[in-house]
Amino acid sequence: MGVHLHSGTVTEVVFDFPPVNALPAAGWTELAEALATAGAEPDTRVVVLAAEGRGFCAGVDIKEMQRSPGHEALLAANRGCAAAFAAVYECPVPVIAAVQGFCLGGGVGLVGNADLIVAADDAVIGLPEVDRGALGAATHLSRLVPPQLMRTMVYTCRTVSAHDLHRYGTVLSVVPAAELRKAAREVAEEIAAKDPVVIRRAKEALNGIDPVDVKRSYRFEQGFTFELNLSGAGDRARQRFVEGR
Q1: Residues 106/137, Cβ–Cβ less than 8 Å
Q2: For FRET with 224, which of 12, 30, 188, 231 sits at 20 to 30 Å CA-CA?
Q3: How far lies 121's CA from each of 17, 49, 102, 180, in Å?
Q4: Please, are residues 169 and 117 in contact by the beta-carbon 8 Å criterion?
């Protein structure tokens, strides 16, 4: 359980928070720190971001929020998510996301900021935030699906499959789940064989020409989550989720 770092030319950052990889607040911070450590290592040429279990990520641990008094857990989770998403985006080398099963909420923030995505054939992504009384990661979903579909997914909380994302060109390849980590590593090794100085400058250049500042955009979204909590709507939605209503 936790975040594990497997260093090398291709460094793997693997997280595991059973049963569904709904990360607690501390888990998001731990993930951000692991990604920063991986990127800071001079020998690292590519990072593969992966998860253990049947799903990649179910987002934040809502039950942790509801059993914690006040808003401390909520604030910690929001800051942790922002840090983890930024760590993917700002990693000085390419980050490849290896995605299986469900990728929801905060998982979309991680994957949407990755440089490349390899997905298992059972992978689906979605933002259930509206049903949870929160907003966020539409910034990252907009990097994966067309604009009107992104809006539909936010309003309805529908998911899309890895096969759909492959058709849009935002997922590089879709493979059987048993071959996911191998497929991600093959692409990583292809990139790692390039001149590392050139690849690092390429990552910096590509971030520099992005039309949207993903950090600022995401924090703007989070502001509405705070507003929903002040109004009481956020707490009501989270409690319905915890109670299974």
Answers
A1: yes
A2: 30
A3: 22, 17, 11, 9
A4: no
Q: What is the pLDDT of residues 27-59, one digit of tens each?
A: 999 999 999 999 999 999 999 999 999 999 999
Domains and CATH numbers, the chain: 2-178+195-242 (3.90.226.10)
The b/e string for 65-90 (b: 16+ C-beta within 10 A; e otherwise) is: beeeeeeebbebbbebbbbbbbbbbb
Q: CA angle 96-120-179, nearest 5°?
A: 85
Mean pLDDT of 220-228: 93
- Cα 167 from chain centroid (whole Å): 20
Give the C-alpha separation, 161 to 17, whole Å. 23
pTM of the model: 0.95
Dist. CA 145–CA 170, nearest whole Å: 8
User: For residues 75 and 223, is the Cβ–Cβ distance under 8 A?
Assistant: no
